[in-house]
Amino acid sequence: MTPLRILIVDDEPLARGLIREYLAKHPDLNIVGESEHGLQAVHDITALAPDLIFLDIQMPKLNGLEVLELTGRRTGVIFTTADDQHALKAFDLHAVDYLLKPFSQQRFDDALVRARQAVAQVQPELQNLLADASQRPTRILIRDRNRVHVIAVEKVEYVQAQDDYISIHSAGRDYLKTQSLAELATQLDPAQFVRVHRSYLLNLDFLQSLERTTKDSYVAVLRNGQHIPVSRTGYERLCGPTA
Predict the structure, then answer these.
(1) I want to staple 234 with a disulfide (CB 3.0 to 4.6 A). Which of 23, 45, 113, 196 is the partner?
(2) Which residues pair with 43 in a beta bridge?
(3) Rounded mean pLDDT, 186-193
(4) What residues does CATH 3.40.50.2300 cover in the chain?
């Protein structure tokens, strides 16, 4: 039988060492890499394609849930964390296992039993876990070839739908992300980001004024002078129903 390929992701050297020690008792497991932070993990998961990942949640640069979001990884993941908030949710879902630090060899081995069974299976519950694990996101992650752009939500001026992508405009630059405008809108604070047009989501902090162009249409004038179309429905979202 071909050994399962293991990737260890944790910013704490002692934590990685403990996992190596526990894995040494399982000759059918082969460690193919170790990642010290989230950005490195994104690269290593893509490059190494491990069968099983031991993934810490609280890490610098990107946390474990953000790593999953960027890589699209949905199977063969065992989280290691000192935060039992996420662990309890995972146990309720029966999707992936969480090792709550500090964990014993026996607890580690129990997690391996479940993980072996899940390596070749799709785990849709993980997507729900990603969506519910936190409240409103404070940053948006965009993968661009071998780079990862991290944009603070508060600095997003507007988002435009473009076929199968969205274009996120921030600080004079546009970033393409594979996501629908409707999906992103559900993730952001509706009191801050308003769907002013079927193709535009606007951050109200960057709105300077509204100008009428025809009887039933308007444009939003941003602080940088840019104009964004506003539909009648979008106008009502901003200003309330018209008479």
Answers:
(1) 196
(2) none
(3) 88
(4) 4-132
Q: Are 168 and 142 in contact (CB under 8 A)?
A: yes
Does residue 140 surpass a pLDDT of 70?
Answer: yes
Estimate to the nearest angstrom the gap between the alpha carbon of 87 and the chain centroid.
Answer: 18
- Nearest by Cα to 54 from 112, 8, 91, 103: 8
| Protein fold of 139-239 | OB fold (Dihydrolipoamide Acetyltransferase, E2P) (2.40.50)
Region 29-35 average pLDDT? 95
Which token pair is 39? 């950005």
Question: Is the peptide bond prior to 190 cis by the omega test (within 30 degrees of 0)?
Answer: no
- Using CA atoms, how far residue 93 sits from 22, 51, 125, in Å, is 26, 21, 7
Phi, psi of 228 (to 5 degrees): -125, 130
Measured N-to-C along each axis, helices 64-71 and 38-48 cross at an angle, to the nearest 10 degrees, of: 40
pTM above 0.90, yes or no: no
- Classify domain 4-132 at the CATH superfamily level: Response regulator (3.40.50.2300)
- pLDDT score of 2 more than 50: yes
Using alpha carbons, select from 154, 149, 159 the residue that is nearest to residue 137.
154
- The predicted pLDDT at position 126 comes to 47
The answer to whether 154 and 205 are in contact (CB under 8 A) is yes
| Radius of gyration of the CA atoms of the chain, in A | 22
Partners of residue 52 on adjacent β-strands: 6
Of the CA atoms within 13 Å of residue 59, those in its CB half-sphere come to: 29
Judge contact between 35 and 41, C-beta under 8 A.
yes
